[in-house]
Amino acid sequence: MRPVSFARTARGELGVHVLESLDADAIRGWSVAAVTSLDAHRAEIDDLNVFPVPDGDTGTNMAATLRAGADALAAADAATVGDALAALARGAIIEARGNSGVIVAQLLNGMATAAAGADRYCTAELRRGLAEGVSQAYHAVAEPVEGTILTVARAASEQLPAGDVPLARAITAAVAAADSALAHTPDQLSALARAGVVDAGGRGLVLLLAALATVITGRTPALANVAAPAARSRVPRESGSAAFEYEVQYLLQAGEQATIALRDRLSGLGDSVVVAGTGDGTWNVHAHVNDVGAAIEAGLAAGPTWRISVVRFADAAGPADAGEHAAGPAVATRARTAGAVVTIAPGAGVRHLFAGEGVVVLEPDAGADLQPHDVAAAVRGTGATEVVLLPNAERMTDVAHAAAEQVRADGVRVAVVPTRSPVQGLAAIAVHDPARRFDDDVVAMAEAAAATRFAEITVATERSLTSVGICQQGDLLGLIDGEVVEIGHGLVAVAFALVSRLLGVGVELMTVLVGADAPAGLGELIAGHVRERAPLTDVSVYVGGQPRYPLIIGVE
């Protein structure tokens, strides 16, 4: 970390020197000051937290988010103000916690966008940065609500003085506008008015901007006093939010178009939906839902998903809050009476592997795929109230979802973990724990499946154009994660080429399923090749007996 070049008095206060612009060291100083301020006011902000869920963690989440950003900046060799803001913003977005944490991280990202390529950050950059941050924050939230951190941020941006004014004057005006907007949030949001408090996230943002003003002006701005709520736990949530009992959050790698569809899907499942991006295809996704499995499935459908987190509000609430959460929907509070896993698995060997783990296995008919009513019948046949479905093939995923909708109408909770290959299904089963709470189990299984890459070899049925060239009927196609990466004529040669590609990313565990049409000894040949190339990789070979795919490989 570069040293922060600020003069300090014996009392530890920042000196009175006024900055005309921000550089990388000033951003480092701001990051430290912001974390210090949010940590000092964490309990106060937590107590203000009554919207969208009175779970008392907004201060904790915002402090953790800024601390992550500050840590990322400290670890970065950022020479320019643009590099420093980019490191701060990215660290905050990747580690952002909670609704307000994700939103404030997006505001930082807007400020970083305005600093790209700049050596100095003056009033013009601050004006553009706050405006861009507000735009990104509003865009990230599926259903923006006024009277929240969004309103406070917009006020700070819009009340910046026009023209070429000193940076100190600009930030002072922004802080004053934000503080004034915060005082009026109870006028805009009935949940705040009933509790007699200002918005928690908005209060955190005012402190964040005040920390920046302190760095620039050398003086701590005067802020309005904030009253604590009389009884936070007695305040009802805003209309609609009481129905959703879980907070789901994860990171996603996807294009912007995919996130638009994701935001719509999550909005149909719940509320408090925020999808915030770093600008390079990484997104922090946040939502309040009841169907945890469906929320995770939506992310996996959009792109690679990791660092999945699920919090049940009733578990996070203190004793005084229990009565409020107990009034939620029965589906979120009933005791689990029985659980089951149903999977689709072609090939006698593959079916045996799943059945050995206590999984209900469905086998497609020869030459025909299963239909939704077939899968629904199997789910009903388990007699379980909570069921996980593993389709194990991309073409079967829609069938599994259709079957799940049929059975949900009967009051059964069904989660589809979108496994695209039997090896992903086996990875999910490896972490399945019947004693674990259903939603936690779904999260663990989804994470395990998403962390497993899969490769397949199949035979081209016709001449066609692939991503690596034209294949002829009868050619062997090597696929990784569903995409053709090799075209060849020799099974062993294509298999070795796939293995080389997979080992290139680092592999701890490899599972090989040998198909019905594979020659004898193929599995052992591949295992020997892997042990020679990567002796630390653990290889397991099974006779899967699956049709159409002489070889399926999974790596973790």
Describe the secondary-structure layout.
Blueprint lengths: L23 H17 L1 H7 L9 H18 L5 H15 L2 H18 L7 H18 L8 H10 L8 H17 L1 H4 L1 H6 L4 H18 L28 E8 L2 H14 E8 L4 E8 L2 H11 L2 E8 H4 L5 H5 L3 H4 L5 E6 L3 H8 L4 E3 L9 H11 L3 E5 L3 H15 L4 E4 L5 H10 L6 H13 L2 E7 L4 E3 L2 E3 L4 E5 L2 E6 L2 H13 L5 E6 L7 H12 L4 E6 L7 E5 L1
Parallel strand pairs: 5-6, 5-7, 7-8, 14-15
Antiparallel strand pairs: 1-3, 1-4, 2-3, 9-12, 9-16, 10-11, 12-13, 14-16
Helix pairs in contact: 1-3, 1-4, 1-11, 2-3, 2-11, 3-4, 3-5, 4-5, 5-6, 6-7, 7-8, 7-11, 8-11, 12-13, 13-21, 18-19, 20-21, 22-23
Give a short summary of the structure:
This protein is α/β, with parallel strands linked by helices and 556 residues long. It is 48% helix and 16% strand. Strand 10 (464-466) and strand 11 form a beta hairpin.
Key words describing this protein structure:
556 residues, alpha/beta, Alpha-Beta Plaits, 4 domains, 4-stranded antiparallel beta sheet, 48% helix
- Give the full name of the CATH homologous superfamily of the largest domain: DhaL domain
Strand order of the largest sheet: 13-12-9-16-14-15
CATH third-tier fold name of the largest domain:
Serine Threonine Protein Phosphatase 5, Tetratricopeptide repeat
**What class would the helix/strand composition place it in?**
alpha/beta
Q: How would you sum up the global shape?
A: elongated
Distance between the termini: 35 Å
Number of domains: 4
CATH structural class of the largest domain: Mainly Alpha
Average pLDDT for all residues: 84
Number of helices: 23
Q: In total, how many beta strands?
A: 16
**Rg from Cα:** 27 Å
**CATH architectural name of the largest domain:** Alpha Horseshoe
% residues in beta strands: 15-25%
List segments where confidence is low: pLDDT < 50 over at least 5 consecutive residues: 1-15, 231-240, 317-337
